Amino acid sequence: MEENRAQLVSDAVDHKGNPADRTTSGGWVAAALILGVELSERLSTMGIVVNLAPYLIGTMHLPSATASNIGTNFGGTSYMLCLLGGILADTFLTRYRTIAIFAVVNALGTCLLAVSTSLPKLRPPPCNPARPNECVEANSLQMGVFTFSLYLYGIGLSGIKSSVSGFGTDQFDKQDEKEKLQMASFFNVFYLIINIGTLLAVTVLVYIQDKVGRSWGYGICSAFMLLATFVFLSGTRKYRYKETPGSPVVQILQVLVAAIRKRNIEFPSDVSHLYEDPAQKLRLSHTNRLRCLDKATIITSKDAGTRETLAPNPWTLCSVTRVEEVKMLTGLLPIWATTIMFWTVYAQMGSFSVQQALTMDRFIGNFEIPPASFNVFMFGSIMLTLAFYDHLIMPLFRKTRYPQGLTSLQKIGLGLFFSIIAMVGAALAEMKRLSVAKTDRSPTLNLPGTVSGFLLLPQFILVGIGNAFIYAGQLEFFITESPRGMKAIGTGLFLTTISLGLFGSTILVEIVRKVTGIKGGHDWLARRINDGRLDLFYALLAVLSFINLGLFLVCAKMYKPNPEEVAPLKKDQN
Asked: Do 170 and 278 lie in a common domain?
């Protein structure tokens, strides 16, 4: 009997609602079925994003600035919607249903993109070669269908991204030492899968879109996602499911409202007098942080009788566990805020760094590397960093007192550090490129045979290394440190850092252009890259990133790991 109990996972159930058996559920097999959805999502997303501007400019005949804004807004909005997807998963649908439903929505979006790019009536007529400046821009109907398809895909993306990682970690038991180590490796494997999908997208899928047909590329994405959804559903009996304690958003509001209502009430002399739900299966111990929220747990005369008999009104009295969960989520916010800056740096790899490459010598023999393909070096460095860490560094850690390797906060700190070095390197590379560009007065931006494009490799590689650490670190931190019923929201918080980083890049660019152009000044970010001072912009990013790293270190030092949930004492169960 004791042996059978040891095989059960305390906080998970199987597809029938019975306690999950660790020998027949969860683990790497279940996680692999889930990761298939993430691989297909990344293949589709990067296949759309990296090749979006050429389609909008070359086929839909939009101005380059408009096309750039559409791409940035799509990326930022999609990641911002991940927070909503996390709320839906934690409140109504569960992570399993969210993945299944939104994967179908995602596939439908790419299917409509395939249709919109294949039908001639949904595209403007090709430009007349004799009059290239008089191209007909896409009309409102054509752009409406394309934009609707694009954002339908983005809605599907938000549900998948907010739940896949959380549901994947649900397949491992933190109370089991072996599975706890497997969970630590899961985050690296998860990010490795993301980058495999990205590399396939920027190479194979982009080639199919350009050489075979864009509709074929989107159609393949749709087919892959449907196949991944079928594989995901086939593992229904294999998964471990964790219950969610209701709407986390409502819970947060209830705690805030109850605390405000009782703001003038004195604390009891003994914290044991604070209200705790006797029906709570797992409880969190009381902590002294954010004590203002503890007001929500004080029992007054109006709450008399509810402690042992009637369920209290949650808008006036909340349990200690519910309040501690809100404290846990609030405690993540300083770390959340200090990671946004990295993604502002990351955004430059797809914008200004590509523009730099456009003006440089990119030939290897007779083959010219496309400017956007320099991102392959970034994604390659991400994969190499993850492989190096998982196969060489982790075995060394397992021989020490720290078998789990670097903590999530240490990984985030390393990522921020590498972003600073990357921007310093980018500034130096741009200074070298500009010194040569000043001697070239041709009307074009190309400087063949003068400055090698491989001068840009350090910034791509360093951002890639930083990306490998910070993505895995953020993902691990926000999932493991989020309350049990708010993990999808925790993932959504992480993804909003990417969204805000993208939007932050746009805002910073506009601020720099206005400030440096005051009173007839020379814009750092001029219309022609050779007329600006991009090196100073990179230097500014390095300074801001350095300040941000300092703030992060302060927040990380002050951060206290969230307490584990414990079973209530027997005397509380009587």
From this structure: no
444 pLDDT above the threshold of 60 = no
395 and 290 share one domain: no
Take residue 364 and report the two structure tokens written for it. 């290897």
Tell me whether residue 572 is in a domain: no
SS3 452: strand
| Residues 220 and 269 placed together within one structural domain of the fold | no
Name the nearest CA neighbour of 501 among 333, 351, 344.
Answer: 344
Helix or strand or coil: residue 332? coil
Percent of residues in the chain assigned helix, strand, coil, to nearest 5: 70, 5, 30
Q: What is the pLDDT of residues 527-561, one digit of tens each?
A: 667 777 889 999 999 999 999 999 999 999 998 87
- Quickly tell me which residue has 């994405």 as its tokens: 221
Residue 296: which domain range? Answer: 248-325
Identify whether 573 is part of a domain. no
472 compared with 437, residue with greater pLDDT: 472
pLDDT of residue 156: 93
CB 152 within 8 A of CB 109: yes
- Three-state DSSP at 8 gives strand
User: Closest by alpha carbon to 48, among 192, 213, 165, 202?
Assistant: 202
Task: Please indicate, yes or no, whether residues 233 and 275 belong to a single structural domain of this protein.
Answer: no
Length of the chain, in residues = 574
Residues 186 and 309 in one domain: no
pLDDT tens, residue by residue, 107-153: 999 999 999 988 888 888 888 776 656 788 888 899 999 999 999 99
For residue 569, tell me if it sits in a domain: no
Using the 3D structure, point to which of 325, 355, 381 is the last residue of a domain: 325
Number of C-beta neighbours around residue 79 at 10 A: 26
pTM metric for this prediction: 0.75
Q: Are 545 and 419 in contact (CB under 8 A)?
A: yes
Q: Indicate the burial class of 396 (C-beta count within 10 angstroms; 0-12, 13-18, 19 or more).
A: exposed
64 confidence band (pLDDT: 50, 70, 90): low
108 & 77 share domain: yes
Structure-block tokens of residue 337: 């805020």
Distances (CA, A) of 78 to 47, 148, 154: 15, 13, 5
Q: CB 239: neighbour CB atoms within 10 A?
A: 24
Residue with the two structure tokens 């506009």: 510
Residue at a domain's end among 192, 208, 242: 242
Does residue 534 lie in a domain region? yes
**Cα–Cα distance for residue pair 157/150, rounded to 1 Å:** 11
Joined together, the tokens standing for residue 432 give 């070298």
**Number of CB atoms found within 10 A of residue 240's CB:** 23
Helices (H), 92-175: 94-118, 140-169
The mean pLDDT of 329-340, rounded to a whole number, is 92
Contacts of 318 (CB under 8 A, 6+ apart): 254, 255, 258, 275, 296, 297
359, 529 Cβ separation under 8 angstroms: yes
Mark whether 165 and 196 lie in a shared domain: yes
